[in-house]
Amino acid sequence: MDIQFKKVSYIYQPNTPFSHQALHEIDLTIKSGEFIAIVGHTGSGKSTLLQHLNGLIYPATGEVRIGEYVLNDENRKQDLKELRQKVGLVFQYPEHQLFEETVEKDIAFGPRNFGVPDKLIDQRIKQVIEEVGLNEEILSKSPFELSGGQMRRVAIAGILAAMPEVLVLDEPTAGLDPYGQQQMMALFYRLHKERKLTTILVTHKMEDAFTYADRIVVLEKGNKILEGTPVDIFRDRRFLHNVRLELPEILLFLEKFNDTFPFTIEYKGQTVEEIAVEIDQKLKEIKGQ
Amino acid sequence: MKSWLVIGQYVPGHSVLHRLDPRTKLLMIFTYVIIVFFANNTLSYGLLAIFAIWTIFLSKLSLTYILKGITPIWFFIIFSFLIHLFFTNDGDIIWQLSGLKIYSGGLVKGLTISLRFLLLIMVTSLLTLTTSPMEITDALENLLSPLQKWKFPVHELALMLSISLRFIPTLMDELDKISKAQASRGVDLRTGSLKSRMYAVIPLLVPLFISAFRRAEDLAMAMEARGYRGGEGRTKLRQLSYSWLDFQAVVIYIFIMIIFFMLRN
C-alpha cells in the first residue's frame, strides 16, 4: 500500500485560546515495502503525523491517501475498519493498552474486532507469539504479571495478529534497557523483511534511523525540513546540528576520522564492521606504499 | 480530546477577574449561586443575567467560547425545559395538539429553570476559567481554616481537592491515548448496539484504572521522598492577599445585590 501525504496541516483545539498548529503542509510519499524513519524532537509533530495513518485524526487541510483510502476534511464519516486492520499502529508504551485476563485473549482482541474467524485466530496467536520471541506458556498468564519487556512484546503481538501490511511504530523502544532496545529493533527489522511490511518508525534516536531506515524524514516544529537516504542526510549533516539532532556515533567517528587523517572514507551506509574493514584496507595500502 | 469542553479548564490571562483574590471570587460566586434561587421576576433575572454577561466581558473570554464549551450541559438544560413544558398543568392553555396540552405556567417554569441552570453553569465555569486550580484550593483552605478548631482536616481536604483537579487533564489525556490505541485495534465506540458499545468501554476503563493507580502510587512515593508530613506548620510559597481591586469588586457586588433584592417582589 502506497501512502501519500499532500499538504497536510493539523491544528490541535482549533478556535480556542489553546489552538496550536502541529503540522504545516507536510508532503510525503511512502512506497510499499519501504522502511521510513521519522525523526524529530518532542513536539515536532511526529506523533500527530502518524495518527493520520489510521484515521484517528483527519487533516485540517490537505489529504492523506493510504491505498484506496482518502482522508480529508470532507469525508470524515467513513468506515475505517479495513484501514485499521491493514495499518498496524504500535503506540508509545503499547503495554498500557493491555486489559484482558490472559495474554491469549488480549492478542485475540484485535483480530476478533476485525472479524477474523476463531480458528484462524488460534493459528495466528501461535505464529505471532513466536515471532515476538515469547514462549507459548505465557498465553495462559495474566498480562499484568509479566515483566515490562514481555508486556511490550505481548502488546506488539496483539497488533501483528491483525496481519497488517503497514506497521507504524511510535518510539517502540522507549523505556527498555539498551539490550532490550536492540532486540526490539532487530525484531521489527526481521518482521519488516519476512512479512514484507511497509514500516514507519517514529523515533528521536538517529542511531536507529541510520541503522534500519531506507529513507529518513526530519521534522521540526511541524515542518518537514529534511528528507533523504541516510547517505543524503549525512551529506546535509550541518543542517542537523542546527536542529540539535545528533549524528549516530559511527558517523561522528567517521567525521573526526576524516578530519584527522590525510585520507577519507566515504559514507555509503556501511555498518560498523564494514567501516572497520575499510579502514584496515586503507592502512594496508599506505603501508604497502 | 474534547477540545470544546471548558468545564474545569483554566485559561491563563491578566484580566480583572484573573487578578482578583481567589477568596473574593469564591465567596462572590458562592453567594451568587444561592441568590439565583431567590430571583422571582423578569427584572431580577435580567439583573443576574446582565451581571453574568458583564463578568464574562470582564474576563476577556469570548461568550461563544463559553456557551459552546458547556455543550454537554445544554442537553440537560433543554431536557429540563421540555419536562417542565409538558408536565406542568398551570395557567392557560396556549397550544394544544390531540391531547398534548402546553400551559403558559409550564412555559414560564421551563424558561426560568433553564435560565437558572444556565446562569449557574456560566458563572461557576467562569470561576475555574479565570482561577488556577492551585488558587482555588488555596482559597478554600484559607476560608475553611477556622474549622480547624473543631479538628476538621482542612489541609487534607484541600490537598485531596488539588490533587484531583490536577489529575483531571492528565487522565483525560491518558484516556485519549488509550482510546486511540484501542480504536486502532478495531474497537468501535461510535456505531453498534448499546450493548456492544458498553462492552467496548471495558478496554478503555481497565487500562485507565491501572494507570491511575500507578500514578497515585508514584505520587505518594514522590511526596514521601520529599518529606511531606501534612499541613501542620507548613508555609506557603504564594500568600493570598486582598487588594484595592478586591475591595472595589466587593462594593460593586454588594451594591448589585441590594438592587437585586429591591427588584424582587
UniProtKB/TrEMBL annotation, chain A:
Q: What positions does the domain ABC transporter occupy? A: 3-246
Tell me one GO molecular function of this protein: ATP hydrolysis activity
The record's section on Pfam families has: ABC_tran (PF00005)
Query: Which compartments is it annotated to reside in?
Result: Cell membrane
Biological role stated in the UniProt entry:
ATP-binding (A) component of a common energy-coupling factor (ECF) ABC-transporter complex.
Q: How does it assemble?
A: Forms a stable energy-coupling factor (ECF) transporter complex composed of 2 membrane-embedded substrate-binding proteins (S component), 2 ATP-binding proteins (A component) and 2 transmembrane proteins (T component).
Family to which this protein belongs: Belongs to the ABC transporter superfamily. Energy-coupling factor EcfA family.
Protein name per UniProt: Energy-coupling factor transporter ATP-binding protein EcfA2
Q: Which organism is it from?
A: Gracilibacillus ureilyticus
Automatic annotation (TrEMBL), chain B:
User: What gene codes for this chain?
Assistant: ecfT
Q: Can you say what this protein is called?
A: Energy-coupling factor transporter transmembrane protein EcfT
In terms of domain of life, where is this protein from? Answer: Bacteria
Q: What are this entry's molecular-function GO terms?
A: transmembrane transporter activity
Q: Please report the organism this UniProt entry assigns to the protein.
A: Gracilibacillus ureilyticus
Quaternary structure, from the entry: Forms a stable energy-coupling factor (ECF) transporter complex composed of 2 membrane-embedded substrate-binding proteins (S component), 2 ATP-binding proteins (A component) and 2 transmembrane proteins (T component).
A cellular component term from Gene Ontology for this protein is: plasma membrane
Q: Which UniProt keywords apply?
A: Cell membrane, Membrane, Transmembrane, Transmembrane helix, Transport
Tell me where it mainly resides.
membrane
